From TrEMBL:
Pfam families: Acetyltransf_3 (PF13302). This is GNAT family N-acetyltransferase. GO terms for molecular function: acyltransferase activity, transferring groups other than amino-acyl groups. The keyword NADP does not apply. It comes from the Bacteria. Keywords: Transferase. InterPro entries: Acyl_CoA_acyltransferase, GNAT_dom, N-acetyltransferase. Transmembrane segments: none annotated. Coiled coil: none annotated. Residues 8-169 form the N-acetyltransferase domain.
């Protein structure tokens, strides 16, 4: 599976992505807003790739590696996740520092949303973001998501999330 935009290529993660995925999982913003996903070595990062690819096997969608189209430089991940909290997929994304602040997250998320609606036929998508992750909230609102309320996850102490949704007709 591959999605291509004017500046980006979104593709299935590969074991060769382990080094930059390890770096992403150690990023202070990842740890603060997403949390520790057990990626403490390159081998763990390869297992994370397997987990991401397994999501595609199980659900037909998942997180994609995002890279610059012209150079192949990896900049982050974006895709759909089945969190089993909601009745539809959840948009997820995270970027390396080199991929932030240039509009790449909006470009990649827009491509994923379009794919979810046209190819996968989802009329409804969700997203959740940490209450203090203002950049992600801003992006989701710009994409057309509507804030639905606060969400408290069992087993995630002292972290509150916004729950947002996006209907096909709400796409910005």
């Amino acid at each position: 599976m591959e999605l291509v935009t004017s500046r980006l290529r979104l593709r299935l993660p590969r074991h060769q992505d382990a080094a930059w995925l390890y770096t992403l999982n150690q990023d202070p913003l990842w740890l603060r807003f997403i949390g520790n996903r057990g990626v403490h070595s390159l081998l763990d990062a390869q297992r994370y790739v397997d987990h991401c690819c397994g999501h595609f096997d199980n659900w037909g969608y998942g997180l994609l590696s995002v890279e610059l189209r012209m150079t192949g430089q990896p900049i982050g991940m974006c895709g759909l996740i089945n969190r089993q909290l909601f009745r539809c997929p959840d948009l997820g994304f995270a970027y390396l520092p080199s991929g932030r602040g240039r509009g790449y997250a909006h470009e990649a998320a827009s491509a994923v949303i379009k794919y979810a609606h046209s190819a996968l036929q989802f009329d409804f998508l969700t997203a959740m973001t940490h209450l203090e992750n203002f950049d992600s909230q801003k992006l989701l609102l710009k994409l057309g998501y509507k804030r639905q309320g606060k969400l408290f996850l069992k087993g995630v102490p002292a972290q509150k999330f916004y729950w947002l949704n996006l209907l096909r007709n709400d796409i910005a």
